[in-house]
């Protein structure tokens, strides 16, 4: 059996219309936005029209099921939301490839011993901290999370969910019973340059980087840009500029080859050309494959920002929005995916993931694996994100083979 790449392609393109912006060609489908919820309703309607059972849980996850009801499920999928000005493959590929697997099994009358459940998770990309749907599904979500999570503009998660006609309290009831899962496999684009630059068709992922996100404030004093002498200023922007220059040193001293530190969004206030910035708010995202290294980087960032604040007569404040620990994929399932790739004579390599993915939460409740396909030029989270269709087809067929073996084989 093979996936129907033209059908998969058509479905992906249809999904990309939800949140598409003609001006910059990017996709704007942040978690719990109107575009995001419209895409979820479309997916459920599509699945039901093709004879599958579909529903949305209290956390906004869409679950599509096919096969017997009395056995643990082989779960596959990814997320439907996007970053602002994102591409059409990130997350969406894993969901639509999962749906394509169901279509192939159904049209070939495959007799399944175990059901297959395609999961389209909610709010993975970090509008409110990230991985919300996966946390809910794996029992990691708390009441405190629901009432304290908010986006970078201060908009509360609970309010966003209510605007989507979702009861935030019901998200706490979305947890899956581990006994009802046989495994979870996610197909995703690499979002980096390794596979593309090496000319390798697929990646079999062994582990997923941890990540934490801060919202940082440096508070100084707004003043006239012409009359305030340079040595008398409390310029918040200079604090950010100095910190940016310290990032490589922090990694050299406290990080590893897998460490990443990123300032992705910054806002100067009051934001006027002739006024010294009295405040700068920015996001800080830090990643590594080791929990201990992440803690060391966190401490180093705090010390550096405190020292810079003193130097420039600033106040330093930060809020830790999220902290996701590094996770290793299940060794037996990694070996299994490796074996299937070998038997299919695919060109692949084992590798870590520098980006976080839904599957890192599933490692706590079931065997979990992750398959990468190349991103052209390593580009992701951008309108020009692209993966060649022959790589999409190879990755989807590897997923299909793995799911078939797992769903037709006894535990």
From TrEMBL:
Identify the keywords attached in UniProt to this record, alphabetized: Hydrolase
Answer yes or no on keyword Transmembrane helix: no
| Alphabetized GO MF terms | hydrolase activity
The family database entries (CDD domains) matched by this protein are listed as: M20_bAS (cd03884)
The protein's superkingdom reads Bacteria
Q: Known Pfam families for this protein?
A: Peptidase_M20 (PF01546)
> Which InterPro entries did the record assign?
Amidase_Cbmase, Bact_exopeptidase_dim_dom, Peptidase_M20
Q: Report the coiled-coil segments.
A: none
The UniProt family comment states:
Belongs to the peptidase M20 family.
- Extract the NCBIfam families matched here: hydantase, PRK09290.1-5
Protein name (database record):
Zn-dependent hydrolase
Native organism: Thalassotalea insulae
């Amino acid at each position: 059996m093979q996936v129907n790449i033209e059908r998969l392609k058509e479905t992906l393109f249809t999904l990309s219309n939800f949140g598409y912006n003609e001006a910059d060609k990017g996709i704007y489908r942040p978690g719990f936005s109107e575009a995001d919820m419209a895409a979820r309703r479309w997916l459920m309607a599509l699945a039901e029209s093709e004879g599958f059972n579909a529903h949305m849980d209290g956390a906004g996850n869409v679950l599509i099921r096919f096969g017997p009801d009395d056995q643990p499920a082989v779960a596959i999928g990814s997320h439907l939301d996007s970053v602002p000005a994102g591409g059409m493959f990130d997350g969406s590929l894993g969901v639509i490839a999962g749906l394509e697997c169901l279509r192939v099994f159904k049209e070939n009358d495959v007799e399944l011993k175990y059901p297959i459940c395609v999961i389209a998770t909610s709010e993975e990309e970090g509008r409110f901290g990230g991985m919300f749907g996966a946390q809910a599904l794996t029992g990691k979500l708390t009441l405190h999370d629901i009432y304290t999570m908010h986006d970078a503009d201060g908009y509360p998660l609970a309010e966003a969910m209510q605007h989507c006609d979702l009861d935030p309290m019901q998200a706490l009831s979305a947890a899956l019973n581990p006994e009802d899962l046989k495994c979870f496999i996610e197909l995703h684009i690499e979002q980096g340059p390794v596979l593309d630059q090496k000319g390798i068709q697929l990646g079999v992922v062994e582990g997923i980087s941890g990540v934490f996100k801060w919202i940082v404030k440096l508070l100084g004093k707004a003043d006239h840009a012409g009359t305030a002498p340079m040595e008398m200023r409390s310029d918040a922007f200079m604090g950010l500029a100095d910190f940016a220059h310290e990032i490589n040193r922090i990694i050299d001293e406290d990080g590893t080859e897998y460490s990443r530190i990123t300032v992705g969004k910054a806002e100067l206030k009051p934001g006027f050309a002739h006024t010294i910035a009295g405040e700068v708010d920015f996001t800080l995202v830090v990643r590594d494959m080791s929990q201990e290294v992440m803690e060391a980087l966190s401490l180093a960032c705090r010390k550096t920002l405190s020292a810079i604040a003193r130097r420039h007569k600033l106040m330093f404040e930060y809020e830790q929005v999220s902290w996701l620990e590094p996770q290793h994929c299940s060794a037996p399932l990694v070996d299994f995916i490796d074996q299937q790739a070998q038997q299919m004579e695919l060109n692949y390599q084992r590798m870590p993931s520098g980006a976080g993915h839904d599957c890192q939460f599933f490692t706590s409740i079931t065997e979990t694996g992750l398959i990468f396909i190349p991103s052209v030029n390593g580009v992701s989270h951008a309108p020009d994100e692209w993966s060649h269709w022959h790589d999409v087809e190879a990755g989807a067929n590897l997923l299909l083979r793995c799911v078939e073996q797992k769903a037709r084989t006894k535990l």
